[in-house]
Each structure stands twice: as structure tokens, then as C-alpha cells.
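Mods, move this if it's the wrong board.
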Amino acid sequence: MNRELIVNVTSTEINIALCEDKVLVELNREVAHTGFAVGDIYLGKVHKIMPGLNAAFINVGHERDAFIHYQDLGSHFTSLSKIVKSYQPGSRGLRLDTMKIDPAGEVEKGGRISDYLQVGQTVMVQIAKEAISTKGPRLTADISLAGRNIVLIPFTSKVLISQKIRSNEEKKRLKRVAAGVLPKNFGVIIRTAAVNATDLDVEQDILAAVEKWRKTCQQIRKRTAPSLLMGEMSRANTIIRDNL
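Not the wrong board. C-alpha cells:
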């Protein structure tokens, strides 16, 4: 029996269809919860610094300011800030794969948030936790872009493999595939799902994530903080086949 799970995501709803031998056997529809979903990337503006908490409140367009702790800036926040500044209107825009990243100039673990953020500063941030009750979203500046088989991580060159992948041969294959296609200054985490993926599948996943990152940076020129740069719940169609 040939089964297909077809997922159609739009800005207003999610449709999931199960087909068996090309015949529809089940259809589910859900309202899509768009707006401030985990993984969304925003251009925000620092609203308030909280030295006692070593944290800051950032306006990303939510009714309540979003919260970011110093530890959530990520070790490469300095490099991220350079990217954001370079894409401001009138600037040329740095390419991540050509810029020089100085590890010594990155964020220290025991520093103060006021050393890196100032009120009114424009920052790129990602939703780490959705808003709950009276609290706004929780943010991170340690940006990552998830695909089906990989998670792309800018500002590093590491290729990491899911611990659930046990086969040494499979680890070598996936590292080889990733290393062969990753641009400079991009790292990746290979997800467990990649075990069943072809070399081409993994390559295309990585290249799609890299292109998504570049488009996200280019959106900075077109946006004024606060605004959405990249939404995880953007329009998408997915077909998952299971041959039984």
C-alpha cells in the first residue's frame, strides 16, 4: 500500500490530507496560529534595559514587549549586529560567507547586557517561546533556521550530527555531504531524519536554508523595526510518502 501525507500551510489555515493509493481517506483542517510563532525572525527595537536581570525588553510588534536575557544573545551577537547594521538603508550589506569573523570579539559568558544593547537599538531576534498570559514572547539572538533534515547555524563552521544517529558510516556520509555544500561561516546540525534522506535531499535542504537566511537579511532594507523578517509559518506545501 502506498500512503501519502499531504500538508498545505497558508497564512490562515493548515490542511492535512492522508491518501492511500491516491485515494483520499482523511482530511483535517486547522486554523493557523500566525503571529509570533517559535522560529519567527523579527527586526526589533530595544525598549528597556534591565541591569538587575541582565536582560532587556524589545519591541517586536507584540502587544507586550518581548524579553531577552543576556545568555540568549548567543556567542556571535557581535557578528549578527554587524550584519544588521550593514543592511540598513544606504548600506551595501555584508555577505556572511565573505565577512571575517573574529572569535575573540564575540560575546563573553559573564558579561553585561548593557555592553551590547542600548535603548533604541535595532536588533535581529528570533522567537524562542511564544507569549503566555501577561508575558510577551521570549527571544533569542542565537539565530538558527530549521529544515526537514538539518538546522542551519550562521556564524560558525561546525557540522554536528544528531546523537540518535548511531552508524559511523552514516555520520561520515552526512558530514561529507554537508561539508561539500556549506558556504563559509555557516554551520549545521544534521537531524535524525537525515538518515532516510539522499545526498541530494540534504544538499537541497542546506542550500534552501542558506537562501532563506540571505533573503531574511535582505528584508532588513525593506522593513522598519518592529517588523517580521521571516516567518516559519509562511506558505508551504509538503508531501510525505510512506511505502508499506
